Amino acid sequence: MKKIFLLFFCAALFPGLLGADVKPFRPWLAPDMYTSSYFHVNIYNAETSFHVSYAGAVRLKPGVIPMGQLRVGSPINITVNGIQNRVLYMPEENFSLFREKERAGCRMCLNFDGAAIQMEFFVRDGSPLLHCRVTPAEKQLRPIRDIRINLDLLTSGLGIDSATKRFKPDGIYEREARISGGGVLKMNPKWQLLPAGNCAVTVYDLKWERNGSGPVFIGYDPALLTSAKLKINNNYMNNLEFELKKDFREFVFTLYKPRTKISNDEFFALERSKAFPGL
Amino acid sequence: MCFSLQLRVLLSALPLLLSGGPLENPALNPVEVHAAPSHAPLELVKDGSLRFAIVIDGDHPEASRHPANTLADAFYRCTGKVPAILTHKQKTELAKFPVLVAVGKSPFTDAQQIDAAKFPKGGFAVKTAENLVAIVGYDSARIPGFATPENGNAKVRINGTLHGVYDFMERFLGVRIYLPGEFGAVWPKTASLSILPLHYLDYPRVQNVNQDWFIHTGFAAKKRWDTLFGPDFDRALPVPLGVAKIPDRMRIANAWRCRIQTPYRAIHSPSPQAVGKAYPDRVEQYFFKAADGKLYYNGTSIGSYFDITNLAFADFLVEEWKKHFAGGDSVFGKKGEASDIVPNRQYLAFGQCDADVPLPDMLSNPTVRTLGLLGNNNGYSEIHSRFVIYLAKRIQKEFPGAKLSIMPYANYTSPPKMEEFRRFPDNVEIQICAGNLPGFIRNPKVRDGWLKRFADWRAVLGGRAVAGVWLYNIPNNPFARAIAPEFMGETMKALGKDTGNIELFFDYYGDLEWCYYYASYIMYRSMWNSDFDIDAALDEHWELFYGEKAGKLLKEFHACLRSCFLKYVAGGVDNNALYPVAELDRMEGLLDGAEKVLAPDSVEWKRFLVFSEPWKKAFQSQRTRQQYRRPVYHLRRLPEGRTPVLDGVPDEDFWKIAELMPLGDPNGAGNLPSDGAAFRLLWDDSGIWGCCTMNYVPLADSGKTVWQNCSIEMLISPGNRFDDYFHYAVDAANHPYTASRVMNPIAQPYNAKWESPCFHSMVKIGGKGWSVEFFLPFADLKKPLPRPYEAWYGNFVRTRHAGEKEFHSSAMTVGNNHNLPQFGILKFLGLGD
C-alpha cells in the first residue's frame, strides 16, 4: 500500500484540470469473497471524470469460479488465451498512474499465464471521452493466441422500481443501437455482428431515457479487429465484444457515459458537438 | 443438664440455627442427618488454644494415620496450633484433653456403636458424644484381604474416614480447597470452635472417580503455573517440625474426593505396540488388513486398529489373560503385574484406541460383507458387538466370575441394531464415551439423543445400567472449558437410572487447568453426589476467595460466561462458537473492574492472576476471529525448466520468488513463532514444492513419532468445495506421514493409512536450526491438475517441541488443524506472475 500512497502524493503534486489519482476504496465483498489487490482511480479533466477500479478477488462458493473485476463504471472483461481477467492476480507493482502533457490516467499490466498485455485508461485534455489503449507487453513468456475484450454496457433503465422496491424485471426495455453512418440495430438477444468498417456504437433506450444510466458511446478502430459484435438485451445489460487480431500491436477504444441523467436527444447533441469519433 | 449449660447450648447453637447450620450448608455436600445425641457442646478450640487430641486405633495406627494427619494439618493452618495425635492406648496422655476427636475405627468409635463396615463403600459418619467427636468411615485398610491382586493394584482403596475428615474440615473449620499452593485454599483463622451435638452420614454415589492422570497434568505443566503459584508449586505447604507434610497434589485429589474404590476400569487395552512387539509374526493376523493388502499397524501409532472382525483375536486375548494370571509376561504387563488396575480377577478390559478403519476398507472386509454388519446405518456397532459377545462368552468359560469391561466409543457408541447382537452376556460392563457431555446436556436434541442411547444400551444389557460414563471437556476454547464441567451433576441426573454407579471419568481433553478451578471444584462435588448444589457452592466462593467487591464482579463475569456458553456453545452445538462483541466487552469490563479493586500482591490478587490467566488471550482470540479474513497465498509457478533438488536446503534462487507464507496463532490470540518460521511454496504441473526454515535446534529423535518430534504439516483441499483433504507431515527426523479424508458427498472417517507414494521430503539440521524441503505430488491426489489462477484451500502448520513448545499455522483454525471451513486460500498463479 506504500506505493499507492506515493502515487497519491505524486498526483497531488499536479493538481489541475487533468489528472488521475488513487481514491480511498475498499471493494464491497460478499461474505464468501476475498481479495488481495484492489485499486480505484479517478481520472479527470476539465469536462469529465471516470472511475476505474480493479479488484482481484476470489469468490469462494461451491460451483462459482474465482472472480475479480475490472470496471469502468461497469465491468470490462478481457480474455486472453481462454483465461479471463477476472481470475487474475494483479500485484501492486503492475499498476501505476501517469500524467503526461496532454493525457493522464492509469496503466496496468495483466499477465495471463505468461501472455501479458498492458492496458492504459486515460483522458485527454479537451475531450470528454475515456480512452483505453491495449498493447502486448514487451516481454511475453507465452504467445497471445486469442484476445477478446467484452464490455458490459449498463444503459438506461437499470434501477429500482418504486412500486415493488426491486430491480426492474427483464422484458420491459426498448433498446436500440446506433452505429457508424446512422444505421440502427434493434433489440436482439443474439449476438449481432457489427459491419466490418463500423467504428462507433451508441446504445440507448427509447422507453427509459432519463432513467438510470443513460446512453453509452463506444468508439474503436476496426482495422485491428477480427470482429466486433453486439448483444442488445431486453434486460439491464448489453454487451459489446471485440475480438482482436492476435498479432495486434495496439488497440484503442473510447468510451463515454454521462454521469447525469440525460435524454437520448441531449446525448446525440453532445456527440455531435464534441465530435465523438466514428459517428 | 443444668440451666446454665442448657443456655450455653442454646446460645452457641443460635448462629447455626439462624443460618441453617453447618449440616444444612447448601455450599457443601448434602448429608443424611440423624438424631443428635444429648450432651454439652464440645469446645475444640477456646481462646486460640486447642482443647482436644486426635485419637486413632493403636492396634492399626497406619489405617487412620493419613486422615489424622490431614485433620491435624487443617487445625494447624486455622489455629496455628498442632493437635496431638495419640492412639487409644496412650490413656494417660488422652486423659489430659477435655475432648477427643476419634479418627477412623477405634475402641472409641466402637463404643459409640458406629459400624462403618455397614456404610456404603467410602461412606462415613460424624457423630458426637460426651467429650468425643468421632469421624469414621468405610476404609479398605480395615478390610482383611482387600489389597489382593483380585482387587486390582494398590490404587484401589476405599477411604471413607478421609472423606469424613475433609467434610469435617469444610463444614466446621470453613476450609475450602480450590487451588494448590500457599493461596489456593481458604483456611479461616479460628480462635474458638464449639461443636453442637450432631450425627450425620454421607457417602459417594459413584464408586470410581479415577482422575489421577489429570490431577498429575495440573502439576506437570510447571512452566505455565510456576509464574503464578511460585516455583515448585507442587510441594507440600510448610508445617512445623514433626508434622507430616501433605503434598499438594494429594491434598487436591482428596479434597476434590477423587477415588478408586473398585477395581473397575474401562480403558484402551491392550496397547497395540505391546501386541506388535510381542508377536511380530502375528501382526497381520491381529491388526486390520484391508482387501487391497494395506495393513493398519505401523508400530508407533497409538491407534489400535485391532481386527475385531477376526474372532481369533478374542481367543488371543483370552490366552494372554491366562498368561497374565499365571504370573507370566503378557501383553498386559510383565510377570503378571498389570500396568493399570486392569486386568484383575474381577475385570478384564478391552478397548480400541483412537482409530477407525476407513469405511471403504471395512466395507470390503469379507466377514463384514458376508454377515452384513454394516447394513444398519449404525456405524461399526454391529462389528464391535459381535466381537464383544464372543469375547464375553469365552471369559465366562475361562474366567468364571470375571467381567469384561468395554467402551462403546468413536463410531460404535450406539447399541447394536441387529437382533442377534441385542443381548449382551451378563458379564459385560460398559462405559459409554459420551463425546459432548456434560457440556451440551442443556441442548434438548443432544440430551434426548443420549438419553435414548443410554436407555437402549440398558435394554441390550438385559436391564442392567451401564457401568460408567466417560465424559469430556470441550477442547481448546477457554469460554467452554470454564463452564462445561459444571453440568456434570445435571448430566448424571438426566441419565438417571440408565447410568450405574461404578465409574465416572472426566477427560479434560487436555490438561487440568487451574484457571478454571471453579468448574472442576463443583464438578467433582457433583461426581460425589449429583444433588450437590453447584450454584450455592459458587455463590459462596466468589466473595470468600476474592473479597466482596471483586467477588461480586467475578460472579457476574461467571454468570455471563455461563449464559453465553448455554446460548452459543451448547445451544448451537458449536465447540468454538463466536460470542457477540457486546458480550465480550461486558466480560472484559467485569474482569478489568475486578483487577482494579484488588490490592496488588494481596492473596486475592494472586488468586485473581490464576483466574484471569486465559482471558486476555481468549478475548483477543474471539475478537481476531470476528475479523478473520481467510489468508490468500499466491502460489507462484516454478520457472520453466527448473526443478528443486530436495536436499533440505532451500538455497536455489527460485525460492526467492516464492511468496512468504507467515504462520500465526491458530487461535487468533496473537502468538507468533519465536523463530519467525514461515513456509514458501511453488508449483508446476507435477505438484507443489515447498520449504520451511526454522531457527532453532529441533527435537529429532528417530525413535519418536512424527507427532512427538518437531514437525511441519501440510493440509490441502483441492477445489473450492471441501470435498476432501490431504494431510502430509514430516518431522525433524524426516519421518513422513500421509493421510486423507473424504468429506463429500458423505463424510468418511479420517484415513490415516492413505498413502502418497510420490510425496518426498528432506530435512537438514544445522548448528542453529533446521529446514525442510518437500514435494506434494498432484498425481497422488487423483484430481485434475489445478489450472492457472484456480484456488484451493490449505493450512500449513509448524509444531515445535524443542525448548519453547509452539504451535502455529497459516490459517486460524481455532486449534484444530483439520478445521476445513477456516482454511486459507492457495491461489495458483500463472507463468510470469
Describe the structure in your own words.
- The complex is a heterodimer of chains A (279) and B (833).
- Chain A is mostly beta strands.
- Chain A has helices at residues 2-13, 264-273; strands at 19-22, 33-44, 49-59, 69-72, 74-80, 83-84, 95-99, 103-112, 115-124, 130-136, 147-154, 175-179, 184-186, 188-193, 200-205, 216-220, 225-232, 237-244, 251-256.
- Chain A has two helices and 19 strands.
- In chain A, the strands form two sheets. In chain A, strands 1, 2, 3, 4, 5, 6, 11, 14, 17 and 18 form a ten-stranded antiparallel beta sheet that branches.
- In chain A, a hairpin with a 2-residue loop joins strand 5 (74-80) and strand 6.
- The radius of gyration of chain A is 19 Å and the shape is globular.
- The model of chain A is unreliable at 1-15 and 59-68 (pLDDT under 50).
- With 833 residues, chain B is an alpha/beta fold.
- Chain B contains 23 helices and 33 strands.
- In chain B, the strands form seven sheets. In chain B, strands 22, 23, 24, 25, 26, 27, 28, 29, 30, 31, 32 and 33 form a twelve-stranded mixed beta sheet that branches. A seven-stranded mixed beta sheet of chain B has the order 1-12-7-8-6-4-5. Chain B has a five-stranded parallel beta sheet with strand order 17-18-19-20-21.
- The N and C termini of chain B lie far apart (101 Å).
- The chains are: A mainly beta (279), B alpha/beta (833).
- The A-B interface holds A 34-36, 58, 60-64, 66, 83, 87-89, 91, 111-114, 116, 139, 141-142 and B 629-630, 632, 634, 640, 720-721, 788-791, 825, 827, 829-833.
